[in-house]
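ok so for the tutorial part 2 we go from a plain amino acid sequence to predicted structure tokens. step 1 is just haveing the sequence, like this:
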Amino acid sequence: MDTPKRHRFRTLGMIVTAVVLAIAVGGVTILSFAVFSGTEAIQSLRTEVDDLHREVEGLKTQVEAAESADQDLATQVQGAALTLQDVYFEQLKKNDGLVPVWTDPRPGRRAYLTFDDGPSQNTPALLEALQAAKAKATFFVNGRPEWSSIYQRIVATGNKLGNHTYSHDYQKIYTSVPAFLADTDRLETFLATLGIPAPKVYRFPGGAKNEIAARIGGPDLTGKITAAMADRGYRFFEWNVAVGDGESKPNDTLYTSDEIRKAVAVQTRNKRIAVILLHDGPGHKATAKAVPGIIADLKRAGFSLEVLP
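step 2 — the prediction. this is what the tokens look like for a chain of 309 residues:
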């Protein structure tokens, strides 16, 4: 009796084991299928993401190409504007260029002595030389309150004032159009305290085309300033004679009065109209010393000496 009973239990155990094994094998199969299916879905998503990345890169390329085309066009427009500005500024320096000086219909030769960066201790000697020769000049002045009486003397003796900004500080005046206007306004206000009306002519410190202004405020800054100042009734004047008295020679020595005088004579020799750049600021004693001889030379050459209109 015990043996058949044990046999039945053994048979039952084998059946249970077989069922468990079957379930286990089936589960593994199902799990394997699920894992396989999940991997396939992930791979599909990755493919879609890769496609989207490629589309985005393609769009970026198109946007960059459009921006590059816009930049090229802007560069061409700016280049054309600067070329016109260069032509205009260079034309001003020619012997018979633009109004109002160079198209003066009066016969004869005219010289316009202009002095920048003053007044200073050198200015009284210039005024005395001009008065003695019955000649006139234009002084493009900065703001120097310590020489207040000299501004009044310039005007009282029939000479003319021009606005050369109050500070003459390139780092300040060439940051923007409003910065330049504010500095010229400051000079106007200062002159008003001396009873002197605002000048209507001006000169850019360093000239209308100078590398410092272009580097600080952009290559078209002085062109924009010209338009803004014209709206205020101002006209700017360059020059067509520059003798280097505002600079050092290549060997770092200053020009002597004789060298300054000779340079003016050479550069005005073939000109009908001469706008002569000189300086009467601090440190320009040689210029003051040269001016009586310059005036004499110009008169011998048939020039009348006048103020800028």
